[in-house]
Amino acid sequence: MKLKTTQLKKSLFPVYLFGLLLLLASCNKWLDVDPKTKVKEGKQFSSKQGYIDALFGIYQQAAELTSYGGQLTYGMLDILAQRYENKALTTNIIGKMARYSYADSDVQTAISAVFNNQYKIIAQANFVLKNVDQSEGVLDETSKSIIKGEALAMRAYVHFDLARLFSERYADGANASAPSIAYLKDFTVTPQGRVNLGTVLALCEADLKAAESLLAVNQTIDQIALNQGSTNADLFLQFRQNHMNYWAVKALLARLYLYKGDKVNALKYATDVINSQKFNFILPANINVDATVNASDLTFTSEHVFSIYVSSLKVRADDVFKNTTTTGEANDLWSTRVKLDAAFQASLVGYGTDIRRPGATKSLWNEIASTTVYSKKYWSDAPANVKQRLIPLIRLSEMYYIAAEAAPTIADGIKYLNVVRVNRLIPEIAPPATQAEFDTELQFEYRKEFYAEGQLWFYYKRKNVLTIPDGIVNPMTTAKYVFPIPNDELEFGSVVGN
């Protein structure tokens, strides 16, 4: 694949950058950026605020419905992971996607929209990087390091997800030479050839290591779950969990190394995040599931290592996760009590107290009927509540799961797994006798923990799970796990480089 020059101009060229921050009352602050002001490049980067606005533009693009604000979290990826019951029909997009009907025109359109938007994010990051090294006299060294570090980290984050979607799984290096995606390091309209998967991962790692070094200048985290505002007087340094912060870079490195099969480094970086004590599991006593009040926190934001702010999340969530009839609407995303109880192992002794399951004392679910159960995770009925407009992209529990899988022995690994279990109010378990039994326990935890967050699909693919629970077209195959490169890109030519 080469990225079309014309398409780059149209899709990957957001030079009409984002205007002044909306300095809204209290907690909203930097989280909303007004994109209506179109400015020329020279003027854009004539002030520190211009650089900040351009950086925030990366996150704003990532919050689009065709990216982490929908399809790559609760939407497409969890449909592929067979989370939802609205898949009986073969004529709607959900049914087609759940069957991995990648040749269908509707599915192709959805995948193409994701592909194009992801490269828009990358282009925005490259636009920032193109100018940040020329910021002498405009940016102080700390601000320059943070802006450059975040842009590099987001470039790596998005490329990594594109590679995981549009390539075969890495399989401990067996597929390192398989064709993957184009890795764009420059803000340019010059067509770029695809590189192999091993090269993409090496470039992601290089960007992340550079970002880790740059972002070390600011390791502070504001816990929005405890404070609707921020303890830092500098607007730019507030809400660090909603930036690709220093600890998020380490967390992403842990995710990347586990994907590559480098368990030593995966364990190192996961425990770096864990031992930082910057992030905390929510206390069951502090859970508030009333979405109409400012204290509600259905995504457990103290656990977010990195999350994306979606200003229109209420509208989006109401559209797919709210309903008042006993049968779900055509484009709704719901499950059933029977299938959720199976996922949460509700029949086992001691599992009924799991804070994540339907029927919990403080339930994260809206059970209209036993056959129609909706997640309340993204309900946002209190306009001033920032916490309910966040979608988690990396959370603390994943670091424990990575550490568990990367630990040198099953006995060591189960200790990390049990930390999450205890915090979710389910019993600790003894070390399983075999690796297969351990993998079964870990898979159950991914199913419980990341509902409507998109991570389960990546787990299934990395582990090459052949029988997806509740799947309607098992067994799984490589073809089902790999997104096709959009047709318009293939028509332009598929050139693989190194």
Q: How does this model look, in words?
A:
The chain is mostly helical. It has one domain (5-314, 380-483): Serine Threonine Protein Phosphatase 5, Tetratricopeptide repeat (Alpha Horseshoe). It is 43% helix and 5% strand. The chain has helices at residues 5-11, 41-44, 48-62, 76-80, 93-98, 105-132, 141-166, 197-215, 246-260, 263-276, 313-321, 337-343, 396-406, 410-423, 435-449, 455-462, 478-481, 487-492; strands spanning 194-195, 304-309, 365-369, 372-375, 390-395, 496-497. The strands form 3 sheets. A two-stranded parallel ribbon has the order 1-6. A hairpin with a 2-residue loop joins strand 3 (365-369) and strand 4. The longest helix is centred in the N-terminal third of the chain and has 28 residues, at 105-132. The chain is globular and about 65 Å long. The relative contact order is 0.13. Residues 1-38, 225-229 and 491-498 have low confidence and may be disordered.
